[in-house]
Every structure is written in structure tokens, then in C-alpha cells.
Amino acid sequence: MNIETKLLKGDEKVIFELRSLYEKYGYSQYKMSKFEEYDLYVRNKDFLVSDNIITFTDTNGKLMALKPDVTLSIIKNSKDIPEITQKVYYDENVYRISKNTDSFKEILQVGLECVGNVDDWCIYEVLTLAAESLSVISDDYVLDVSHMGIIKDLVQKLDLSIDGEKEILKALGEKNTHQIKAICEENDCSNDLSAKICELANLYEKANEVMPRIKELASDFAPDSIAQLEKLTSVLSDSGYGDRIHIDFSVVNDMGYYNGIVFTGFVNGVPEGVLSGGQYDKLLKKMNRKSKAIGFAVYPDTLERLMTENFEYDIDTVILYSENTDLKTLSDAVKMMTSSGKSVTAQREVPAKLRYRQLLKMNDKGVEIIENNA
Predict the structure, then answer these.
(1) Closest CA to 304 of 163, 96, 148, 124
(2) In what order do the strands lie in the sheet with 55-57?
């Protein structure tokens, strides 16, 4: 089934299915204010997708911001109880520059967070829900998984400056092995480490097929991280996601915030990721919290584009009627079509820019087909 048929009526259908999915796994809906103190975002700007934020001054003189992100608000307003696990999901509007319009826009963002006593079961569950979320959008999807523990240990062995680490992570994220080699040469890194990071950058296979090679490459510097990655991906494969889970070390996030499993989801027909997430214990530590956390979000810009670009039609049928049309006859025609599962609108004239499958017209003899695009 393709995206067009899977999404049906657009974002309402997707949101309904995602909410039902998350609630089935015991996640409760989290509602929050539209704005937070601007300082929250300034202190964690590297965690945000963009540092372009809409601000205003509150009546008490505090500088406030329309929220560009949901995760920071959830962490700030949740209780820091590391002994228990809090599981929440959200569908909230965020305010950021849309990639589609290059201007500020109110955009729907959907996701979930698992905060508190986050263990391997929680991480596995979140990965499962990420895969299931992708399947709501399209049957043809893949979830690329990486581990910041492996990446961090390898990068730190290169003994680079902070700027050098950022450069190597950027090159790794772009699978730019030429740049990786150049950075390593400039900093007199060992050829062995340079070769390993280049090979890891190029790896992209189903998890169960590539894990043996990863263990050979990284077992001498990240055994615990490798063991966790192998365990989680093995159970995912055994649970029926084997063809959907790929290892890809170009999936990287800021090492100042992320520390474990990280992942990005893709669907066929969309060039960039539609979902992203990972474990971000370091963010909580930075916010003076003892809890751990993992979560993901469906990219709002991509979700918005899916809802607007992947629908050939806005509605199935338009029925044109006049002031002389019999009300009962029109009612019967509308009921007949809606009962068969079609969407229909009765109008005196065709609305401008409305995309329809079929155009009908009511006359004395009944319903006449004017145009059929199906």
C-alpha cells in the first residue's frame, strides 16, 4: 500500500492512528502551554533543530518564547523521579521556520518521551514504536539505528579538539570519508583509527548481517555499547523487524546531549528522514536531573509535506446543485455516496483550487456525471 492510500484523509488520520498506537503501549497524552521562558531554549539551543525562535515580553517583564520544540518543555515540567518510568506522547503545535515556506509557521509535531528509569526494555519499546509509527505513514519504511557510545569512544580516541570533534561528526554524518581522512591526517591520528571510522561511516546493512563486522571493528574500545546495540537489534529482528532495521553510523547527534541509541526513520518517496530520536541522558544531566530519557518525534515539516504533496485529490466527489434542486433528492445522493465510504461536498459552484475525483451535477433526471478523474 502506498502513501496516498495509507494516509487517507491526511493528518487527522495519521494523528488518530499514532495516538491509538502510543496509548496501546501505556503512553498518556501530555498537554502543555504554547510558550516557555526564552532562557530554557537559549541554554539548550544546540538541542534544537533551529535557533530561530519567536519571542515576546510577558506582562511581568520576562522574555517568553513560542515553543519551537516539545521535548524541552516536557523535561522542564515533568517530575525528576529516576526510580519510576514516565511515558508520555504528544501532538502539539510548534512554532518554527518551515522548510516548505522559509517563514515562521505553526506546525504540528508528534512524538513520545520515556523519562525516568530507562532500561533496555524502554529503549527496545521506543524503537518498536518508532518502527510502528513509520508503518502508519507508509508500508515501505526503514529505521536506521546507531549508537553514540560507539561513536563517542572512537572519536575520543582520535584526541581531537572540540572543534575537531564537531568536524569529524559532521563528516561522519555526511559519510564523507575523504574529509574524515583529511581531518585525521591534519591531527596526526593513527591510520588504524582513521580506517576504522571510515569503514564505520560506509557501513549500511541490515543489523543482523553487519553486527559481526562492527564487533571486529570496535570491540577494543566500545564493548558495552556494542553489546547493547547487538542485543536490541537482535530482539527487533526476532520480533519481525529484521528487514526494516539497518545499522548506519552516519546517524549522529550532539555528543553533549545524546549518549546511547540514536535513530532516524525513512519512508520510500521522501528523500530525508521523517522521524528522529534517541537517548538523551546528558540533556537531563545538564538540566540538573537524575533521570534518564529516550524519545522521538515525527518531523513536523515532513509530516506537513506528506499531508499536502502526497494527495492527488482533496475530496472524492463534488455535487453541483441549483436553487431549484429538490432538497430530498440532493440529501439522498449525498447519503448514498458517504455510506459507500466516499467523501463528498455539495456546492453551488466548484470551490477554487479544489482537487476532486468526480464532478456530478443534479438535474431533473437525477445525477449527471460532468467529470471523472479517478
Answers:
(1) 96
(2) 35-37, 63-66, 55-57
Q: What is the pLDDT of residues 130-181, one digit of tens each?
A: 999 999 888 899 999 999 999 999 889 999 998 999 999 999 999 999 999 9
Q: How far apart are CA 334 and CA 337, in angstroms?
A: 5
Rounded to the nearest 5°, which phi and psi values hold at 111? 180, -170
- What count of other Cβ atoms lies within 10 Å of the Cβ of residue 352? 5
- Where are the domains positioned within the chain? 3-140+268-309, 315-372
Do the Cβ atoms of 68 and 127 come closer than 8 Å? no
Residue of 72, 89, 82 lying closest to 119 (CA atoms) = 82
Phi, psi of 358 (to 5 degrees): -145, 135
24-44: pLDDT as tens digits: 999 999 988 788 888 888 888
Give strand pairing partners of 315. 356
Identify residue 352 by its one-letter amino acid code.
Answer: A
String of DSSP letters for 66-125: E-S-SHHHHHHHS---TTSEEEEEEEEEEEEE-TTTSSEEEEEEEEEEEEES--HHHHHH
From 35, 33, 74, 77, select the one nearest 54 (Cα to Cα): 35
Strand partners, 116: 85, 292
Question: Residues 316-339: pLDDT tens digits?
Answer: 899 999 988 989 889 988 998 888
Residue 150 to residue 104: CA distance in whole angstroms: 37
The topology (CATH level 3) of 3-140+268-309 is BirA Bifunctional Protein; domain 2 (3.30.930)
Kindly state the cell numbers that stand for 35: 510558550
Does the pTM of the predicted model rise above 0.90? no
CB 138 within 8 A of CB 8: no
The cell for 89 is 506522547
